[in-house]
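Bumping my old thread because nobody answered last time. Still need a sequence for this structure:
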């Protein structure tokens, strides 16, 4: 058997070869100082068109860990290695001064460890949770973006794949309609929302308790409206829910299946002379979802041999939650950040992951000098379940991600650290380590340590923080 450290070294060398072979145009990270460089596709401030792309490769591996038993949805205890491959082509065109059309094609290939099962805070945000979908390219985003100026004051902005204008009214309303990712606009955090250059864990890059509307690949169809002023913003979103938990098809019965999202943002720091942001999030999902208590009652009454949430779904059920998202610059390139969230754990986790409450704190650093834009960060997350959810799993029930066949409950605790090094021409490589205590909320299993290597290419601009 090949030793574990040899497997890690082999994966690293393979990724490094991919990076060296793929190096091309120059790239300056969004939050690093600009540097003169040549890019494959230049984007002058007043350009009508947008064309860019990215490739993200993440290889992850873990060694054997303690596991007295396993279920259908367990993280496998034997040594594993998995490689995910994600590429995206971003396009856009300005139809007028205030209307843009954005259209992105994407492919998510490869697999995640244990096919992305067994962890609430799964280790790789790029993984599609249904590997049978394959790497066939699909439409990720197709939306109309309209801006309505309020007043004559104008602020300079940096064009990106989600907003093409270089100058916008300071006070404005922005409306997006079409296929989009809710996580592109809600619960965004400068230091912890980007699996391309930052962390890769689901519950570090997003609030785990935010069960945001999405299909298996992370997208939905909906509308997002935002009012923005100089130091504040308010956004609202309405979106389609999937027909099944973690499903690929949308439920078009909008009277009984839809998602409401609202977020208030205050752009005010608490450290003098340094910027900070506070975001308050609320959401309410309406869908054909199951009740953990009904599934447990049917099992206790002998009507089901094991608790089965699928058998107790009912149209029109509601699942709500709230979240807090903070970030604060503290100088010298350092930024502290955190999230907290809780949802109604009586109704099944349906769209994102199996988390009913989550608490996260972290610290990130970005190089402010030179043109390489190196980064590093560390984050700690604690995820938890409601009493009904944990009993459901303990009695042998299966969620769409979890199910060891039994459960000795303990909060799932995760520590993730990464270092990203800019190379040249839009290329970066990263080392990442995650240590997970009580994987799948089970004190009988683990802990497990996951090592990762990431190679990334931007042509020419990085995707804004989001999915």
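Sorry it took so long. Here it is:
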């Amino acid at each position: 058997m090949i030793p574990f450290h040899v497997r890690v070294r082999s994966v690293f060398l393979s990724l490094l070869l991919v990076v060296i072979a793929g190096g091309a145009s120059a790239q300056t990270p969004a939050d690093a100082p600009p540097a003169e460089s040549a890019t494959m596709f230049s984007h002058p401030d007043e350009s009508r068109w947008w064309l860019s792309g990215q490739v993200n490769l993440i290889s992850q591996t873990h060694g054997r860990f303690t596991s007295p038993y396993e279920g259908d949805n367990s993280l496998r205890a034997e040594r594993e290695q998995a490689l995910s491959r994600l590429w995206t082509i971003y396009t856009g065109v300005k139809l007028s001064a205030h209307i843009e059309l954005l259209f992105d094609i994407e492919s998510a290939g490869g697999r995640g460890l244990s096919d992305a099962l067994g962890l609430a805070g799964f280790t790789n945000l790029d993984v599609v949770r249904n590997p049978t979908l394959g790497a066939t390219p699909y439409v990720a985003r197709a939306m109309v973006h309209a801006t309505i100026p309020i007043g004559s004051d104008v602020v300079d902005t940096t064009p990106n794949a989600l907003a093409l204008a270089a100058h916008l009214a300071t006070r404005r309303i922005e409306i997006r309609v079409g296929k989009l990712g809710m996580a592109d606009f809600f619960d965004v955090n400068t230091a912890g929302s980007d699996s391309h250059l930052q962390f890769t864990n689901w519950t570090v890059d997003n609030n785990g308790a935010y069960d945001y509307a999405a299909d298996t690949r992370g997208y939905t169809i909906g509308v997002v409206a935002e009012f923005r002023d100089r130091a504040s913003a308010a956004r609202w979103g309405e979106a389609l829910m999937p027909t099944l938990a973690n499903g690929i098809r949308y439920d078009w019965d909008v009277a009984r299946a839809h998602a409401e999202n609202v977020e208030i943002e205050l752009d005010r720091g608490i450290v003098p002379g340094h910027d900070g942001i506070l975001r308050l999030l609320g959401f309410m999902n309406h869908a054909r979802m199951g009740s953990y208590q009904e599934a447990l009652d049917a099992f206790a009454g002998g009507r089901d041999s094991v608790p089965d949430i699928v058998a107790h779904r009912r149209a029109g059920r509601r699942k709500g939650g709230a979240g807090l998202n903070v970030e604060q610059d503290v100088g010298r390139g350092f930024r502290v950040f955190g999230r907290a969230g809780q949802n109604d754990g009586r109704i099944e986790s349906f769209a994102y992951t199996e988390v009913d409450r989550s608490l996260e704190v972290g610290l990130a650093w970005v190089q402010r000098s030179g043109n390489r834009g190196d980064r590093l960060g560390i984050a700690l997350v604690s995820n938890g379940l409601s009493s009904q959810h944990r009993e459901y799993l303990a009695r042998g029930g299966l969620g769409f991600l979890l199910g060891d066949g039994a459960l000795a409950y303990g909060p799932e605790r995760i520590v993730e650290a990464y270092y990203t090094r800019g190379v040249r021409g839009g290329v970066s490589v990263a080392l990442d380590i995650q240590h997970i205590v009580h994987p799948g909320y089970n004190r009988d299993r683990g802990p497990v340590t996951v090592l990762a290597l990431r190679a990334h290419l931007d042509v020419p601009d990085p995707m804004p923080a989001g999915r």
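The domain at 4-459 is CATH 2.40.160.10 (Porin). Let me know if any region looks off to you.
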